[in-house]
Amino acid sequence: LNIIDGTNLERNLYLSTQLLELGIPVVMAINMMDVVKKNGDQIFIDKLSEVLGCKVVEISALKGTGVKEAAEAAVQAAQANKAQQIVHTFDKKVEEALTSIEAKIGSEVTEEQKRFFAIKLFERDDKIKEQMKSAPDVDSIVDGVEKAMDDDAESIITNERYVYISSIIGKCCKKAKAGQMTTSDKIDRIVTNRIFALPIFAAIMWLVYYVSVTTVGTFVTDWTNDTFVGAIQEAAGTFLTNAGASDFIISLAVDGVIGGLGAVLGFMPQMAILFLFLSILEDCGYMVRIAFVMDRVFRHF
Known about the structure:
By secondary structure, the chain is mainly alpha-helical. The chain is built from 14 helices and five strands. It is elongated.
């Protein structure tokens, strides 16, 4: 049961194309249909079902509509146990490469899952290779496609998925405000801009660390170390002195135990402020955008 967000259909269909390749029955449930209709948008369920090759139903988890029907459809699909028909195709060069890779895959993989394994081998997925008793050597095939399309294998498949999704999205949904940029789109144009994205990211990270480590964080840390921990050390020292403890025991407890724990405790305010800022950046959607911006850089690592 593949539950996707109807308000972000194009983005959600990326994972759907991967699920459809697994060779198992799939039922797609489009969630947030109440919001879709409220916005005046339309999703043509029958057409979407046709172009994807799987059953598609409407649900609203918030209002509880269609949920039971979606569950029943999933149960029926599981009981029928009919392999998912894969209807989406990629560029001719990629399809030829995948066909060649499928031919190299032995009988350990079922016919229904050969395309999935072929795509993963094309992407040079090490985990898939580990699952196979005898993974075929497909480097020459992949190298040829990479050279022809001037990109790495993983990026080629990613691009092909989005090209396919773009080709069907216009047939399957209709936006009430087509062509109008949303607030999210306007923000995207700035924070994921090819030129300004990295300077903006650097400025935001500098501000986060400046507040959490250099200014507010340092003030709270100093107070923790000097005032809070210092007061505990003073009280403990006085108590142990009055109790007649030796200088060694006083030094061990006050400077060693309490001082040692206090040194670690002093970092906690800075970490708390830092993670507060990071959670705000996560919740407002900025971290997702910067992950997109930095993807090509971090892929090399």
